[in-house]
């Protein structure tokens, strides 16, 4: 730690600052590009940290320090430390002992550095450092702007200020004022370099920023210290490294402590910091190795993660109000993002680091500045810092903590939460989506291809074989399906339902059951002679309601007209006002179709036996449906009250119904046999025995469905009986009431 | 009886592919247009003049209640004439949905809805789980309107029924009316508010897989677990 070196470094730094800043500015934009991108990615995390930290200013240290990175390292450390100490001491008078410890630890740096450098320079530098730190903290843009390009910096600063400091301003403004005064004064008094002029405006801005973030700065400085240490390691002396390392560790610990303290209260910070400082060396060593940037990155990670932890507690509160994701998730996301950022930073800074390494001046400047800052720190801490700083800090501290939630909310809700949630959701959401898709795909595959699934688990034959088998099976299944469809087209039950035969049968059944229960009810109310007479009458009806033996019924190969006459006559016998229009229509069309078929066959036109069969079944189904509908309608009409009086007696009706049913059944068998004839003719036409074998099952099926059809009709017929009986009872009751 | 759309289903008899069969009954005064409504819905036709229904008639159509989920609606078209009243009351029992139809150009038919509703609730198997809908029919006769739409809505709302105005002639809301009903019932079924019960034909299991044995006398039992 030769004074000359430091001084030289400082001077050179001061002189060179102009150039390096330009480089920095150039570099930093690039950084900002990367970091910003990273930060944008990680921005949520960082922002949160910043946001959280600023109000408290404790958190800010860690972040700022990290952000400041190599460029501002030394300066930031000292000034920050100084201020931090001052603030600390001011704030926590009670904890003064702890602060003292920290001060003592930190002071050594500052003192040594101070000794090396000129105080005035130090002041200016400190101001610069502070500025730079602030800027760097807020974002690299600032740093670049601060040093080289004021306009940009101012703009950016403004923006940043608005973003970052808006929460802070309230709290930290008092401090900022002090800082401004001090910084300006120092800058003025210290006529070091031409840079000062440039710096002054910057300084003011910076100072404002600093003031705003004054508390933050201190913390930042602490946070920044780790980085400086790394830089120092690379560039300069081990001693500085150690010291900075200590300070850094202290700062980092402080940040941690500060974070912790946020929850617990400002005072505990000091103690935590002191404890932390004791532990730090190891961390720094680890982080310090290799490239400064890499080391910085590592330290950044640790500190960031620490910050993240600290945040989590704060975030929890905010989250509850904001409805953010779980704190664990948030912190996790933060870490991820931060790590991500760090890596990016490392890359970005790696470049910078090289450049900067090349420009030892910068580093030196920073270092030299640090000592200067250290002096300032001492001064401030001793004088203004204690007085004003205490007052302001006191004001700020109480404000800070309460303000944390409110400012936090605003910030988190605006920036951090939005970005984190968005980024986090995108990442996690994307992963979830992928996972879901994958699972769904498997499910679908397995659902659709049970065979494939079995094969997959079972044999491990080659894929093509497996797929070929699956294809064959699928084809077989398709053929079966097609056959099934054909079968369904000729399925009597389905067709019967299609023609509403089933519905009519059901409706008829309902009426029948209702009538049946009414009949039973009537019987139960009667007794003696009435019961006997009623029973007798009901039995008569039932006896008349017997289907004549269909076989014995002579079957005149009835013409179409015969059929119509017969059913009309019998329906009239039932004395129902319904006409067998539908029945007739169906019957006529069937016979026309059969005649057409026959003529075609005689003309040697080929008929598709399958289609013939389907037509036969369809016809049977339709006809029987119409028959059942007819019965249904007849029942409905018979049940009409108006109908009762004009009708013939129940026995007559029963007889007519029976005959009607016989006719209808006969018609069914006629149709069946005609279709069978058609098929047989077709088979005969085509000759060649194989065809005959093909036709026989179809003919058999037709006869089968014909009998099925007949049984439906007979069922329907049977269902009419209770209705007839019911009507008879009703009429009898009407008669008795009339007579009585 | 079958709609052209339904018959297009992959060459199969359309009834083969329904998941459930819902039985609904249409009631309301004579000449309000119940049969026309059903003919429009099931056959896509409209006839200016039609004979009064005797007792009950049947219509059927498949309708999609959810993507890939078809149900068969078996629609019982009851006679509105007073003389069939004693018969038609027998037909409520196996219905899961009741459509109360009135003619917006016939105030009397609207006022009689109260009676029809009462009758339905008395005769339906399970009045609570039955779905009701009020249909103001002949909405094309706007110039002859005697019942405001609001009145119909209010009436339906009062009894927690659905409401829609339709026109078979202009083909307005015909599809929607039955679709709403079918979906409502389907949802109830899925929620467990309704279930397939032996001895009650309001809801029957249908055929979803063509390869199943197709004996209509034995309603499919496979689909009953769908309620779970």
Automatic annotation (TrEMBL), chain A:
Protein name: FAM114A2
Signal peptide limits: none
Biased composition (Acidic residues): 173-182, 355-365
Record's keyword annotation contains Coiled coil: yes
Pfam family, one: DUF719
Transmembrane intervals: none
Biased composition (Basic residues): 56-70
Compositional bias annotation for Basic and acidic residues: 71-93, 128-145, 153-172, 235-245, 277-286, 326-354
Domain of life from the UniProt record: Eukaryota
Classification via PANTHER family: FI01459P
Polar residues biased stretches: 109-120, 246-255, 395-406
Native source organism of the sequence: Patiria miniata (Bat star)
UniProt keyword annotations, A-Z: Coiled coil, Phosphoprotein
Low complexity compositional bias, start-end: 31-41
Region (Disordered) residue spans: 1-298, 322-410
Residue ranges, compositional bias (Gly residues): 287-297
Residue stretches in coiled coil: 463-491
Automatic annotation (TrEMBL), chain B:
Record keywords, A-Z: Autophagy, Cell membrane, Cytoplasmic vesicle, GTP-binding, Lipoprotein, Membrane, Methylation, Nucleotide-binding, Prenylation
Gene Ontology molecular functions: GTP binding; GTPase activity
GO terms (BP aspect): autophagy
Annotated Gene Ontology cellular component terms: cytoplasmic vesicle membrane; plasma membrane
Subcellular location: Cell membrane; Cytoplasmic vesicle membrane
Position of the signal peptide: none
InterPro entries according to UniProt: P-loop_NTPase (IPR027417), Rab_GTPases_membrane_traffic (IPR050209), Small_GTP-bd (IPR005225), Small_GTPase (IPR001806)
Mode of membrane association: Lipid-anchor
Main location: membrane
Family: Belongs to the small GTPase superfamily. Rab family.
Protein's name according to its UniProt entry: Ras-related protein Rab-39B
Organism: Patiria miniata (Bat star)
């Amino acid at each position: 730690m030769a004074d000359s070196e430091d001084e030289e470094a400082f001077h050179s730094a001061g002189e060179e600052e102009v150039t390096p800043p330009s480089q920095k500015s150039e570099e930093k934009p690039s950084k900002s590009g990367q970091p910003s991108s990273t930060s944008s990615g990680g921005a949520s995390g960082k922002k949160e940290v910043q946001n959280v930290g600023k109000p408290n200013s404790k958190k800010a240290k860690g972040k700022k320090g990290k952000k400041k990175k190599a460029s501002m390292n030394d300066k930031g450390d000292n000034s920050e430390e100084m201020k931090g100490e001052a603030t600390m001491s001011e704030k926590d008078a009670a904890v003064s002992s702890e602060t003292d410890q920290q001060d003592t630890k930190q002071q050594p740096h500052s003192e040594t550095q101070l000794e090396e450098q000129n105080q005035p320079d130090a002041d200016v530098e400190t101001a610069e450092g502070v500025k730079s730190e602030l800027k760097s903290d807020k974002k690299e843009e600032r740093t670049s702007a601060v040093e080289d390009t004021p306009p940009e910096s101012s703009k950016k600063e403004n923006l940043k200020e608005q973003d970052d400091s808006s929460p802070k301003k309230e709290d930290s403004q008092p401090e900022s004022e002090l800082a401004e005064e001090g910084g300006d004064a120092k800058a003025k008094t210290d006529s070091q370099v031409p840079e000062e002029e440039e710096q002054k405006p910057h300084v003011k801005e910076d100072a404002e920023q600093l003031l705003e973030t004054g508390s933050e700065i201190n913390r930042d400085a602490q946070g920044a210290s780790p980085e400086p240490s790394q830089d120092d390691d690379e560039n300069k002396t081990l001693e500085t490294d150690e010291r900075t390392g200590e300070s850094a560790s202290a700062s980092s610990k402080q940040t941690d402590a500060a974070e912790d303290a946020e929850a617990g209260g400002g005072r505990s910070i000091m103690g935590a910091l002191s404890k932390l400082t004791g532990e730090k060396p190891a961390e720094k060593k680890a982080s310090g190795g290799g490239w400064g940037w890499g080391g910085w990155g590592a330290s950044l990670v640790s500190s960031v993660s620490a910050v993240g932890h600290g945040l989590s507690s704060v975030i929890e509160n905010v989250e509850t109000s904001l409805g953010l994701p779980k704190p664990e998730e948030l912190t996790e996301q933060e870490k991820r993002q931060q790590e991500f950022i760090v890596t990016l930073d490392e890359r970005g800074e790696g470049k910078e680091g090289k450049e900067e390494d090349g420009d030892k001046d910068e580093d030196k400047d920073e270092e030299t500045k640090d000592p200067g800052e250290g002096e300032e720190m001492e001064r401030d801490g001793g004088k203004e810092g204690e007085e004003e700083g205490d007052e302001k800090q006191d004001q700020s501290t109480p404000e800070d903590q309460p303000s944390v939630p409110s400012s936090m909310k605003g910030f988190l809700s605006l920036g951090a939460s939005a970005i984190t949630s968005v980024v986090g959701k995108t990442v996690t959401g994307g992963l979830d989506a992928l996972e879901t898709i994958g699972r769904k795909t498997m499910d679908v595959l397995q659902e659709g291809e049970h065979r494939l699934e079995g094969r997959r688990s079972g044999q491990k034959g080659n894929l093509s074989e497996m797929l070929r088998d699956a294809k064959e099976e699928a084809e077989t299944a398709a053929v079966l399906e097609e056959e099934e469809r054909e079968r369904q087209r000729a399925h009597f039950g389905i067709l019967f339902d299609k023609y509403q035969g089933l519905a009519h049968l059901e409706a008829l059944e309902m009426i029948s059951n209702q009538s049946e229960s009414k009949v039973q009810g009537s019987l139960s109310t009667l007794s003696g002679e009435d019961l006997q007479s009623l029973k007798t009458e009901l039995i008569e009806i039932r006896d008349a309601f017997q289907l004549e033996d269909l076989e014995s019924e002579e079957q005149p190969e009835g013409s179409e007209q015969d059929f119509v006459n017969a059913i009309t006559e019998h329906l009239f016998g039932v004395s129902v006002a319904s006409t067998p229009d539908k029945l007739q229509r169906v019957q006529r069309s069937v016979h026309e179709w059969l005649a057409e078929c026959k003529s075609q066959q005689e003309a040697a036109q080929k008929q598709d036996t399958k289609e013939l069969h389907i037509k036969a079944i369809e016809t049977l189904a339709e006809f029987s449906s119409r028959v059942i509908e007819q019965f249904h309608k007849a029942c409905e009409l018979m049940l009409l009250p108006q109908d009762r009086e004009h009708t013939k007696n129940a026995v007559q009706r029963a007889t007519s119904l029976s005959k009607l049913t016989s006719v209808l059944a006969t018609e069914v068998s006629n149709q069946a046999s005609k279709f069978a004839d058609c098929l047989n003719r077709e088979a005969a036409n085509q000759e060649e025995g194989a065809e005959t074998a093909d036709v026989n099952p179809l003919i058999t099926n037709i006869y089968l469905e014909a009998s099925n059809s007949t049984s439906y009709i007979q069922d329907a017929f049977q269902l009419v009986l209770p209705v007839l009986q019911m009507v008879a009872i009703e009429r009898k009751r009407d008669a008795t009431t009339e007579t009585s | 009886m079958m709609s052209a759309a339904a018959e297009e289903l992959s060459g199969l008899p359309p009834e083969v592919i329904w998941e459930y069969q819902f039985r609904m009954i249409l009631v309301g005064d004579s000449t309000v247009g119940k049969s026309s409504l059903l003919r429009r819905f099931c056959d896509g036709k409209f006839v200016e003049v039609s004979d009064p229904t005797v007792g009950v008639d049947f219509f059927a159509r498949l309708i999609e209640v959810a993507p890939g989920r078809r149900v068969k609606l078996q629609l019982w078209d009851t006679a509105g004439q007073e003389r069939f009243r004693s018969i038609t009351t027998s037909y409520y029992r196996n219905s899961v949905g009741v459509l109360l139809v009135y003619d917006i150009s016939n105030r009397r038919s609207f006022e009689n809805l109260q009676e029809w509703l009462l009758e339905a609730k008395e005769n339906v198997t399970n009045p609570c789980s039955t779905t009701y809908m009020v249909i103001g029919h002949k909405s094309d006769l706007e110039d002859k309107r005697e019942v405001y739409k609001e009145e119909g809505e209010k009436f339906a709302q009062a009894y927690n029924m659905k409401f829609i105005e339709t026109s078979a002639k202009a083909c307005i809301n015909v599809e929607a009316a039955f679709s709403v009903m079918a979906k409502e019932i389907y949802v109830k079924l899925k929620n467990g508010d309704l279930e397939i019960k032996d001895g009650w034909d309001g809801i029957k299991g249908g055929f979803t897989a063509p390869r199943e044995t197709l004996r209509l006398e034995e309603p499919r039992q496979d689909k009953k677990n769908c309620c779970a």
